[in-house]
## 1
Amino acid sequence: MIPFSYEEPQSLATACSKIDHRDAMAIAGGTTLVDLMKLNVLTPKSVIHVRKVLSSSVETRDDQLVIGAACTMANLADHPLVNGKLPVVRQSLILAASPQIRNMATLGGNLLQRTRSAYYRHTDMPVEHESTQKINSADSDGDEFGEGVETSLLAVLGNNGKLVGMYPGDFAVTFVAFGGQLVLASPDGERTVAARDFYQAPEGSFQYTTALKPNEVIKELRLPMTETLKNSLYLKIRERSSYAFALASCSVGLHMNGDRIAAANVGLGGLAPIPWHSAEAEQALVGEIASDETFARAANAALADANPPSGLEFKVPLAKNTIVRALQIVRDRGPLNDEQLWAMQHGRG
Amino acid sequence: MTNSDGVRRRDFLKGVGAAAAASGIVVAEDKDHAAAAGQKPTSRSKVTIALTLNGKKKSFDIDSRTTLVDLLRENEQMTGTKKGCDQGACGACTVHINGKRVLSCLTLAATIDGEEVLTIEGISDGETLHPLQDAFLRCDAYQCGYCAPGQIMSGIACIKEGHAAKSSEEAREWMSGNLCRCSAYPNILVALRQTAGAEPISDPAIRTSPVTKETLS
């Protein structure tokens, strides 16, 4: 780890004025930053502690769930406004990481977690070259990115035909799917940005960028308490039953009017360089009868533009089946409690 | 975030090729020295923090880079807390901060000034072991023992959180942050659930029925 100066500002405004997200980085829980600093992937000259100058409260305001950015994943998952009330929110938190990490990681930091791809996590990897390399292109001048490329944590959707790192998080998938908003604080005041606009797919870089400017810090998360949020599920498919990143995951919520779908939210994880909101899937669902055929059409619409790098072709049918199964579970069983979730995670139900 | 990180540091290696780069890990010290050459530690890279460590108030003058696991093991010679992966994947370094289980390898010590830390050295009452320590002995809940301090610290929290006494699936889920390379999971689970009161206290290796030709076949 490269030496750095450490500061604990007494106010959020002071903290914001010091942070530029490049040489001066914010730390709250540290679960991403400390890890990447040990690898010398991130080498800030100064680290600014923001956990103590940010709120960690959870409350409802104007039909919105308002979450202080310093709230930990564990505390949000266990909060009485969430536990037993907003299934997809709790599930996308408690199916992420481990209990220890969820006790440390704040929501603000969780939204900003970096890709887990080895091409980002290893300082020897020529990431710049990678990001401009077209997938399976015939005019490839070398074979170093063809056979033998480590594709497991690369994006298959929204990759613009490039080898780019996959966004690994879970909660952010729910946050974009259900129309979350971010309040960003800076010395000049505050602004609100929709989560769907906050994440920007990579253009010439290996992973996503965000709308966060230098001197801005995520202060608050807001999630509208829609009907779909109450009848929802986070389905996470991974290589082991717990403590692993998603191969494919799906945040879904349905609001039914008789046997027709009045409103729907669909988000996808483990697939794209950003937490993925599928407007195409939602469009295929709304106004239709909640049949398996409708669900299959929605899944096909969600993956229509998939462009998997060599070796990740399996993710396309996997993602489609994940979407269909998640929608079926919400339709047939409604919201799941924790016990049903563990049973499902361990191969029953 | 403008995500400009990760470009400059890789310029010099452009064109090396993924296959070659993946074949070996560059010696970390060399990279540290090269990168640190133009960036000397400043006075502000030293910090002073106070902790309540296993009930005792202590003050530490540390390098800002110090993680909690290094502070415990290197500064305090408290080697009960184990450093496994050092990247938040294995749980061997689990301790409690303000009563909650966390990973000490990803905790920058500077960020926990004024807080309460409980480690494996602080859970027994003198010579009387914590009930979960006792259960680990009784149930033989380890082979090499390296993960055991982390398992026990995580287990104590898991019991307190109420996740150990209901279904064994739930207990397994909420212990999934602690890996055991010897795969002693069945006995760890029994030790945890016995301590939580979900199962009667017994040695899982001792049969309740006599060994006969039939039970051996």
## 2
Amino acid sequence: MSREGAESRPAVTASTEAMEMIHRLGAAHGALAFFQSGGCCNGSSPMCLKQGELPLGPQDLWLGEIAGAPFYIDSEQYERWGKPSLIIEVSPGAAEGFSLEELEGVHFVTRTAP
Amino acid sequence: MSTVESTTYAPPGEAGSPVELEERYKNFIGGDWVAPTTGEYRENPTPSTGEPFCEVAYSGAADIERALDAAHAAKGAWGRRSPSDRAAVLNAVADAIEENLEMLAVAESYENGKPVRETLAADIPLAADHFRYFAGAIRAEEGRISEIDENTYAYHFHEPLGVVGQIIPFNFPLLMAAWKIAPALAAGNCSVIKPASPTPWSILKLMEVIGDIVPAGVINVVNGPGAEIGKALASNKRIAKIGFTGETVTGRLIMSYAAQNIIPSTTELGGKSPNIFFEDVMAADDAFLDKAIEGLVLYAFNKGEVCTCPSRALIQESIYDEFMPRVLARIGAIKQGDPLDRETMIGAQVSTSQLEKIAGYVQIGRDEGAEVLIGGGRPPLNGRLAGGYYFEPTALRGHNKMRVFQEEIFGPVVAVTTFRTEDEALELANDTLYGLGAGVWTRDGSRAFRMGRAIQAGRVWTNCYHQYPAHAAFGGYKASGVGRENHRMMLEHYTQTKCLLVSYDPSALGFF
């Protein structure tokens, strides 16, 4: 795990609605962590897991925290994305995969700041 | 067909449809339909209109335990059945799928949004063939004997693992289930299956068809949220192996759970597959050129919801101006509409979240300077289809460093760029995190071979694309996952090796 250096703009932020959902999930499940996914099916989704559920690897880049939850992305993936600032939002429709917000019938979405 | 003239199937449950529909579907556990312990069900919409058409169990972790109880109760007897007995069951499953081909094809199309002409011609026939293939493969399987010395022999047996967990993706709900179930059962295992959340139902229609053919407990299907039951299955101490198809973070979770329980896993995690067109494809205006043009347009197969979607088209610069207009004309001729219409060539995306994501990526492409060559938005569909999850087949032109060339969009969007030399084509092809599929199109056999060997991907289609015969290994290099599916080598992924080391020598070793 490595950290991005101090930059003028946070590498990851979340919308008000997303922050509310993260707090709600935190109240139900305890401390949370986000991992940006890639690849098949739901590959561009941020996955919201219980903290510690997925052991961190040396390639996991810490981008910041949203509503107290750390947000990680694969460092090579972040490089290939062009190191954008990420904005996490929440939309109706259940998430897929093992992401916890599926239980609330919504899914988080990663958008990039213009 | 609902009428003699119509090319459109009536939706499941409506008069004239080949598919009967109930209001509510339970889990399939131990050969019976079992209500979820949670008592909860969720509405299941069809992507073609966005309207719910049935309810499906929304289970909890306790339902996974029930399914595991049933599988463990069945595993001893099933594992001891002779290979020819198990093969007979698999062949009977294949026969039943074939006898119900139209019903299953319509069900699959309706739930997933893919055109019925694809499910009639590909998904369902391939699923039946997969069971036949592994029925044959298990009968041809044999152990090996090693002669250590004239009195000492190592006998190697393939033994079933026992009970395996299998998590199925939403893009080919029945075919991907067949890919996982057939080798597992052939090898003597019992399975607990968690279908993808957007497509919980068509596999239950399959269970209606094969539930009496397969002994109780050998196949069990539990529907519900991945965050709860997917995890309960993948991290369970009572499975001996986990198979998963999906995205990279869940893939890492699966492998991490497997590591914690010291069991094997196979993961298939998608890709960003290059499809490479060398200038000699245009050396003649013939059937091969026509095939190559279709080969590029295959990105729209299954509305791009394919792990191996040829979503990066790399075209030699010298032919781009002649080749691309012909491709665009072919894309422009794609008929989009009701998936149940046999003339429809592209249907609806599986869910609103997928639809949003695709639109988001096309916007990202525009923002980073990609040129929209065709498509780029929602098609104007009216009536019942207005609420469906449709997106036009789209082509973007840009360069390989753009995000639309690097990230899997999982929709009908191809990112097109050009190259000058073979070396540059190879560099672009391999400049990706993933390595699942690739396509090479050329009339030069030596070049095809060189490229095929040098591309870092598990499957390089050469002068073809999107063919999935059971006897050809499929799986990823790099971040596209670990392990293979298809081919009889799969039996090794679903068996344990037992070595009996036997001495026929009456003499002691002499140490003590």
## 3
Amino acid sequence: MTPLAQLLEAALFSASRPLTADELATLDPDATPADVRVALEQLREHYDFNQHGIELVELAGGYQILTRPVYAAAIERAQFSVRTPKLTAATLETLAVIAYRQPVGRIEIEEIRGVSAAGVLRSLQERGLIEVVGRSEALGRPLLYGTTPLFLELLGLGDLADLPKAEELTIALRPHRAVAEGLDDAAAYVEAES
Amino acid sequence: MDHLSAVAETEAPAQTLGVGSGFVIELEAFSGPLDLLLHLLREEQIEIADIPIAGIADQFLQAIHELGLNQAADYLDMASRLVRLKAQMLLPRQSEDDGWEDPRAELVRRLLEYQQIREVAVWLGRSAERRAEQFARGYLPPPPALPLPPLTLNLIDLLSAVERVLAGIPFPVLHRVVARPLDVESATRRIEGLLAEQEEIRWLDALGSEPTIVDVLSTLLALLELAKRGTLRLLQPTPFSPMVIARDAARSVA
């Protein structure tokens, strides 16, 4: 391994979160982004080729050293670490809506899921999986939510482009629609009712 | 966890309470009315695009009743929409009426959209499980579960909650709690009065006529207190014989 690869390995080993290529580049002022990429690739190959128990994973726009899945059961049995608990159906559905529709407001989420979303949104926000990314221009200026890097980390995704594409789903995604339009629909519905 | 299980145990009888008890039992099995609706359609092997509204509306109402979801707003909202659609479908229409829009269109669109979100949710769940198979450095054991936050409610809330619970009990058994303090002082006076007249009295004399449990306890405490002060002496000549209460310990010994 090159000295740069060794330096990156030390930095990644010391970190408890994924480090981006930009962050890693600050370690050595002489290293170009291309150098960092090459060194990271070298590190990844080193772990794979020499059959290490750890691997270099691209996660949430950065890089992180993780144990290989094959050892999960043994590590957990010895209680050195525990798996993250499974997410509930309500949590996953809400995350699915937000991931594809962000920025998206509570009303649209509730319309799609057919249940109130306030509680799930609050707990997702507390866990840092979603965040407020703005306010809609619609009446009452409702909050708009988006996913965070922690969401990508939890799901093991590099970035949002790793989510399944519309054509990979059994049913095509509805084209993104402005939140304001959704509110107009709701208003029209109320008028029709009265 | 212990808190929750304890609560569940004490609330177990609540499930036998009648209608209007105010308890909503949320089932984990369905994550919402659309989920339940999809489940019913799958069971009947019906295409979403061709929902027989009348039949499904009835099944939905029956299902939420059986599952105890008929008080949950989200499910009630869907139920009312279905009933409304059922009525719309019954309205007569002319066959050549081109302007007719299928009233089911909105529901079909929502179901398809929801089904798609479910598909993504399953994908996300699998991804999260795969990621959970790999550990990063810096693992910290999860913090112990925090105790439940203290309740913040006012007296009105509390009283109305009590009323709600009481209303659901078929035959409430209420105990009136009244203060019945032990009257040691008057028992002391009674014993002193008796000992002023006689040198020795029996336990039953000391109790007075028609003693209640409170009188017995008060008398016992009074006797013990007087014996401690040395005013009287408690004697039991043989085991299990009646207690003899004697005036002035020193003289009786002499």
